[in-house]
Design a protein that fits this description.
Copper transporter; transmembrane; membrane; mainly alpha; transmembrane helix; 125 residues; single chain
């Protein structure tokens, strides 16, 4: 008799999103889909928090607050993955991928603008 104590990812509509109050049952497919969209947008926001750090003023209090918010946001993303619902995991992956793509392009634009000399140059375009 084999007992499997491992974690299993399931693809069902009934799910608890992070908190018990944020749950769906088998007959709430539309609400579940809406929840997955919210998860996707939240993960996009989470991935773009680094871009926010680039434009914030540089001081200790702001840095501490940013790191606290970023850590709490990362914990929330981890909790979403730990629902062990395959559709929620797919929404997290899609949201993080899109968010990373946006963040990477914004970071490159920001860094390119800040590397140009103050007076400009003939080769900077």
């Amino acid at each position: 008799m084999a007992i499997n104590n491992g974690m299993v990812v399931h693809f069902r509509v009934n799910c608890e999103f992070v908190f018990k109050g944020w749950s769906t049952t088998a007959d709430e497919t539309g609400l579940f889909f809406f929840g997955c969209l919210i998860v996707m947008f939240y993960c996009m926001l989470h991935m773009n928090l680094y871009t926010v750090k680039l434009i914030l003023p540089k001081n200790l209090i702001v840095d501490i607050c940013w790191y606290l918010i970023y850590a709490l946001s990362g914990i929330m993303v981890m909790q979403l993955i730990m629902t062990m619902n395959g559709w929620v995991n797919v929404a997290v992956i899609i949201g993080c991928t899109i968010g990373y793509s946006i963040q990477e392009s914004w970071s490159q634009i920001y860094e390119k603008e800040n590397q140009a000399p103050p007076g400009g140059c003939e080769f900077c375009n």
